[in-house]
Amino acid sequence: MLTRRGVLAAAAGSLLLSACGQPGQRPDDGTPGSAAPDRHELVVGASLELTGRGAAHGVLQRRALELTAEELNVSGFPVGNLRRTVRLEIRDNGSDPRLAARQATELARRDEVHALVGGTLAETSLAIVGVAQARQVPFLSLGFGDGIALPLAQRTFVYKLTPDAADVARRMAQLIESLRLRRVVLVAVDGPHGDAGVRAVRLALPAVDVGLARTVRLPVGGTGFTDAAERVVSAEPDGVIVWATAPDSGSAARALRRAGYRGTLVLDPGAVAEETLTRPNLAAVEGAYAIHPACLGGSMLTTSTTAERDRREFTLRYTQRFDRFTGFAPYASDALRLLTSAARMASSVDRGRLRAYLQTQVVEGIAGGYAFAPIRHGGMEPDSLGVYQVNQGAWTVWS
Question: For the Leucine-binding protein domain, which residue ranges apply (predicted)?
């Protein structure tokens, strides 16, 4: 079967030489933006939401980064004629876009990182985008939002690992059709992530002949959801889509149940974090559905047994270290693996060469599949998405 991933793999290969600069570049040449050659390191700067409203995802991504760096550093990885290790420079942006931008600037200028990772919130990712482009530092975004890697002409150093809203919405629409729901309400958080969801859902539902009774926006900050929930209930839907990130997803579910809604809940991937299945939320989210990448449970990686093994091993290491794996997409782990793969292929940690070889990556990662190309810098492949349901306080594969 001809897939988008296969087409992009061919495109990436044919355009690789033109994307890499002039012939004869010396591999691992220590050009500006590289760490001192004698350090033998790939230096990755991460601005993450370790506190604030994005911490439900930011803390999980830090864990994924550190676990993967430890694994890679056991024996290092070849880059040209050197064997390098990963050094992480992690900063807490406090879920503040302005702080995220300042941190990205400092990491690029003072710490001379080879690449940037981070921004689990769309707002912080978008703040880092400007810095990455100005400083010409490859940036792998972990945020939800369709405007992060587009327009491509202004995002040449930017790559997005999360699923595109249109792919998530189409999978939601298929689920809603199979559940025979005919009238739904969309509850979307204010901001770029919610905006992307609103656009995508409005396009996806008519394709399955499902009516969108109302769109209700949630205020940023996790409070004041009562009024929004009451507006949802007054529309008398038989299904509700909650398009938000944890912890807002769980808070919205609680508000809806308190307002008297007892129907079906469908959540986008941003809901899947440990916070959503904590005790205060369990009764509200029991039975809820979520669209999420393959790593959540029940492997969907049918094309790569190596990828399946890597995902299982990552889950095992994570569980051993942190006691439980309640389900999240380890995008940060994939970001680090994509960077080390690009460094191997480029025989260099030069920022420009890393960027060029990132856009040739067509791989199955821990979280799901990616097909980057010069004409496409994100996000996750749609066939990586599955349907899950909360069953007795745990995410389970829905069939």
Answer: 43-391
